[in-house]
Every structure is written in structure tokens, then in C-alpha cells.
Amino acid sequence: MTPTVRAPFDFALYPSPLGYIRIFYDEGYIRAVQNIARTHSAYEAETQNKGKPSVLSDKAYEQLSEYFEGKRAVFDFPFYAEGTPFQKRVWEALCTIPYGEVCTYKDIAVKIGNPASCRAVGGANNKNPIAIVVPCHRVIGADGSLTGYASGLDVKKALLDLEQRYRHVFMLP
Hints:
The chain has six helices and five strands, in the order βββαααβααβα. By secondary structure, it is of the alpha+beta class. Strands 1-2-3 form a three-stranded antiparallel beta sheet, covered by helices on one side. The longest helix is centred in the middle third of the chain and has 14 residues, at 55-68. The chain is globular.
């Protein structure tokens, strides 16, 4: 299930290779990036209202488009996610996972100094409102399997495959 984003944020809807992306923003920050997968049961209804694009949402979309084209590995638009202190620690740790690499929930739990918190890390990962930019798709199960992703495992696999395909562009081993 896609995390909900509280008003009064504005939003804009943009096309992507994975369906539409809804970008929520306020006066200075991107507040959420949500993928509305084509398989989403309310896809048609959710894509009728295109919102109102802004300079900031357009910049975020431009960078996300570059990511999908294999031309960008790091985002530099301002973003801010609301969450508990624990969630924020997890999201900060997610941002340290290099493009094209994966790690486990346990790895993140150790990174934030709480090795026994694997399940809580999974919960925080699920509540990440800024998909792709805060790369929760790079977290996999301890056995190497793809595990939960708010937009579906097919989208998670597509993002990981995309990063593998373009690793060489960024001279990553």
C-alpha cells in the first residue's frame, strides 16, 4: 500500500516508464514521490487529476526522468519526509546505499546501530514517502529475495534491473 501524504501539499502527476508518478511538494521541498503502477486498481481514477506542476516538481520530474534514462544516479532537488526519529534514521541510511547495489534489512539495522530492529526497519522502509529518491527498492531479504515494495515487486525488480543495466555509465564495478 502506498503511504498517504497529508495535505496541504500540492501535487503534480507525470508519466514514467512504470506508470504515473505523483510528486507532492510544498513551498520549498519535495514531500513525496509515489508511483501509481499501471496495475493499481484505481489507476484510471487516480490519473484523472493531473494536479498543478511547479518549478520544483518539474525539476524533480526532470531528474527522475534522467534516472529512468540511465543518466542520473543521485538526486539534488530539496526533499523532506515527515516521520518518527527512527524512520528518519532508516531513510537516511537508505540514502547511503550506492546506485546499483542492494543490502538487507539487517544491514540497515546494523548501520543505524540497532541490529535487532530488522522488522522495524522493514516497517520504516514501507512508510518511505519519497520512493526512488530515498532508495527503499535497494533493500532485499536476508536470503537475497525481493521482498515487499509499496508499488509492487514488479516495480522493485524493474528499478533494480534498470540500475544494473546502467551501472557502467557511472563507472561502478
